Amino acid sequence: MNLSVSIIVPCYNASHYMHEVLLSIQNQTYKNIQCILINDGSTDNTLEIIKNFPDERFEIYDQQNKGLSDTRNFGLEKAKGDFIFFCDSDDLLPPKAIETLVSVYTGKEDIIVGKTATYSWDRKENISSLPHPSEKQLIANEHSEVLIKNMTEGLSPIAQNKLYRKSFIRENHLKFLSGIYHEDELWFFETMFRAKNITFIPEITYLYTVDNAQSITKKKSDKNLLGYLSVIKTIYNNYYIKYPNNNISAYYIAYLKKIIIGNFKNDSNYSDAAVREMEKTFKEVNPEFNDTINLKNIEKFYFKYLNTISLKDPDTIKKEYFNSPVNSLRKHFRIIMFRLFNSNLK
């Protein structure tokens, strides 16, 4: 099978990285690629670097700044390959990345996921890796097994380093939500909610740069908080309400609320207006929980507990759950379980 892969690369003010990123794509051992390079209104010489990089497989587009979601969506429209792969303009691909991912395809997979190494651009070395299964796994995703795995064990909910079957994306009309931060969190939920078969492989197929100071993950602000709130509202309206017999949405919303509360604890520079929006959204996005889900009882209890905490006002959350030494929701939960256990012994 000589399957083609469309690599979508949104490019914004990436002149420091661009040449090496393009070189890592050009040097892929798997040659049947279409590389879609979209300059998203860069104010440096990113576009010039792209234009001066000769490769007939590289398609160059230039647009006014629209943001990452709209840029990726534009790339999805232009994709001609059998598969779609996202690469950021400050990350690198090992030489055999695409070959390794494509070689796994059996005709069943909607998504194939490689292991992502965190990479120091300055030191030119891998540091660690993002959460990922240690062995190859083909998951038949009939009951949202991948989303449950992310909630309980942790996975990497980034859009990059995943080979998506294009027909799967098109048939399900999947797009990135425009104009928000943390669009990957929603994309991960939507793709893993709908995918029937997903394979995880243990080989490193992506180098994720962690020392780019301009990355939005490094700049916590109201937009980060509001982005996450948009994600849980979208999941609530488009999945919890529309698919009442599917039990994953309520628990996943509670899981994301935990992340939001954790960020609230560590980033006290949110504006009062953003915090009020968090309180309002938490109370509006208040799902009911169905126990017919493949979670241990203690995990069901934990996610219900998280949702209960989210309904309290922000000052109470700060006062009761952020104080040392019991300074995390998980620690508070363990104390509650310990007390329940002891009371049942009496």
Automatic annotation (TrEMBL):
EC number: 2.4.-.-
Superkingdom of origin organism: Bacteria
Residues annotated as signal peptide: none
Segments forming domain Glycosyltransferase 2-like: 6-141
Gene3D superfamilies cross-referenced by the UniProt entry: Spore Coat Polysaccharide Biosynthesis Protein SpsA, Chain A
Entry's Gene Ontology molecular function annotations: glycosyltransferase activity
Stored Pfam families: Glycos_transf_2 (PF00535)
UniProtKB keywords: Glycosyltransferase, Transferase
PANTHER family per record: GLYCOSYLTRANSFERASE, UDP-GLCNAC:BETAGAL BETA-1,3-N-ACETYLGLUCOSAMINYLTRANSFERASE-LIKE PROTEIN 1
Protein name: Glycosyltransferase
Lineage: Bacteria, Pseudomonadati, Bacteroidota, Flavobacteriia, Flavobacteriales
